[in-house]
Amino acid sequence: MNPGIDLQGSFIKALADLGLPAGAAKAIWMPIPMVLMLVVATIGVLVTVWLERKISAAVQQRIGPEYIGPLGILAPAADGLKLLFKEDILPAKADPILFTLGPVLVVVPVFASFLIVPFGQNLIISDVGVAIFLWISLSSIQPIGLLMAGYASNNKYSLIGGLRAAAQSISYEIPLALSVLAVVMMSNSLSTLDIVEQQSSYGIFGWNIWRQPLGFIIFWIAALAECERLPFDLPEAEEEIVAGYQTEYSGMKFALFYLGSYVNLVLSALLIAVLYLGGWESPIPVELLGQWLGVSETTPWLQVITGTLGITMTLLKAYFFVFLAILMRWTLPRVRIDQLLDLGWKFLLPVSLVNLLLTAALKLAFPVAFGG
Amino acid sequence: MNLAEGVQIVSFGLLAVMMIGAALGVVLLSQVVYSAFLLGGVFISMAGLYLLLNADFVAAAQILIYVGAVNVLILFAIMLVNKQEDFTNLPNYWIRRGATALVALGLFALLSTMVLSTPWAVTPTAATAENTVVQIGEHLFSDFLLPFELASVLLLMAMVGAIILARRELIPPERKAQIDSAELDLKLPERPRTPVPALRGNRVETQE
């Protein structure tokens, strides 16, 4: 058993000591991580929205939100509240069931994907053996929600917008999966824990970004396109294009689409941190520091520090990428739909295939460095 | 019965009800788009059943391939093919329906005899695999190598065929008269590709 904090074990033991039967203690434990993850994802989105306003203001030499809470921290919460109280309009000839189900299908898989994101050796909701594959397959449900929303609006713009959004989502999923496959090949496992473990030996020099620079760039571009972030935000371009699948949406359903895309951005940033930047590992391994100071790995206070540092490190790395994505939004021009598809199919797909073959060749040639 | 077993039984019941209900909806609903969306529901419930059987890789693959690829393809086909057909009352329509019912009932009888005659008692010593991916890989490259390779070749053929089909653009007859026939004699009947002016900068011209 690996060293580290066993939150589940100690929680169940504490409840059992109080006199509860073991089954009941387990049943009480079960919803806690799920609710915690929902809360973490939502807070992550609120922080991202606030960052987006502040950073974009700084880029354009404005101030941004100031009066809603200190530094405008409560602005995203006020936004959410406003959207909650807006009238929820259902177009007269729209399909009521599919119209409601569309946003749900877009949001739920993204939240479900959070169960594979590790924040530490034991700070993960479920250590699924096929974690990365599960994430890719869950993200493939999203196009159905987009098509459903586009179709149910009963509007030509929405239908075409839905088809375009689904096409974008499908065409960028393949390079994404192929670049992830190269990482998986190097670490011999689909589990996120194993992928981080494999990068943990040499501190910052062991991170996958040095061995997979090409895959890293492909993953970042494809992830931006999957989240519909700005060079690729054709489906939801705010006021420049007659918007896509969400033309007819208002109120909370509209907010769900935005929530989905922001949660997806945070999730992709977290997964970049896990796949390419060593996850929860700090640039200088904590275990090494402990060894230098002569502290054993199983010391409780060291474990608490390691856990806290792990969460902080993951979040720092992830939010660095969120920052980059926001900066890109105010720097790069939007691509056209044909440029978008050309980039996906004619450039990213061949390059990611070459990257995969190259990784396989290097793995055979240098099994020491590439996880043979 | 402990907690885990109870959860398994309840989720099995829910998934089974979901799957049968969605499958009935696929067949019985008259709106073809509803049927296509419900088909996604059937596939997802099947993935849930695989998950209950400890087959996590197969469950994820089911979602990725059937929900993410096949179902989206069906939806694209339905939404892009705008075929309108008026309902006409055929004279002997009941023959078709009767024949369909007969075939369906025969299939149902066949399957139910198969279900009843198969010994379903599972040997309790079936080893639960620690890492399913490794096991699947070992099987694919040892005892299932030939089917695996055959499937790869089949998929490659389908891909090449799809590319050829997608590349060929037949020329409408009125334009064919305009184009010099001598130029086309030794070539595939394809429309000459001239990019729109805005694109000329970043595209390689493939003049045929």
UniProtKB/TrEMBL annotation, chain B:
<keyword id="KW-0472">Membrane</keyword>
<feature type="transmembrane region" description="Helical">
    <location>
        <begin position="6"/>
        <end position="29"/>
    </location>
</feature>
<keyword id="KW-1133">Transmembrane helix</keyword>
<feature type="transmembrane region" description="Helical">
    <location>
        <begin position="36"/>
        <end position="53"/>
    </location>
</feature>
<keyword id="KW-1003">Cell membrane</keyword>
<comment type="similarity">
    <text>Belongs to the complex I subunit 6 family.</text>
</comment>
<dbReference type="GO" id="GO:0050136">
    <property type="term" value="F:NADH dehydrogenase (quinone) (non-electrogenic) activity"/>
</dbReference>
<feature type="region of interest" description="Disordered">
    <location>
        <begin position="188"/>
        <end position="208"/>
    </location>
</feature>
<feature type="transmembrane region" description="Helical">
    <location>
        <begin position="59"/>
        <end position="81"/>
    </location>
</feature>
<protein>
    <recommendedName>
        <fullName>NADH-quinone oxidoreductase subunit J</fullName>
        <ecNumber>7.1.1.-</ecNumber>
    </recommendedName>
</protein>
<dbReference type="Pfam" id="PF00499">
    <property type="entry name" value="Oxidored_q3"/>
</dbReference>
<feature type="transmembrane region" description="Helical">
    <location>
        <begin position="102"/>
        <end position="122"/>
    </location>
</feature>
<keyword id="KW-0560">Oxidoreductase</keyword>
<keyword id="KW-0520">NAD</keyword>
<keyword id="KW-0874">Quinone</keyword>
<keyword id="KW-0812">Transmembrane</keyword>
<dbReference type="InterPro" id="IPR001457">
    <property type="entry name" value="NADH_UbQ/plastoQ_OxRdtase_su6"/>
</dbReference>
<feature type="transmembrane region" description="Helical">
    <location>
        <begin position="144"/>
        <end position="166"/>
    </location>
</feature>
<comment type="function">
    <text>NDH-1 shuttles electrons from NADH, via FMN and iron-sulfur (Fe-S) centers, to quinones in the respiratory chain. Couples the redox reaction to proton translocation (for every two electrons transferred, four hydrogen ions are translocated across the cytoplasmic membrane), and thus conserves the redox energy in a proton gradient.</text>
</comment>
<dbReference type="InterPro" id="IPR042106">
    <property type="entry name" value="Nuo/plastoQ_OxRdtase_6_NuoJ"/>
</dbReference>
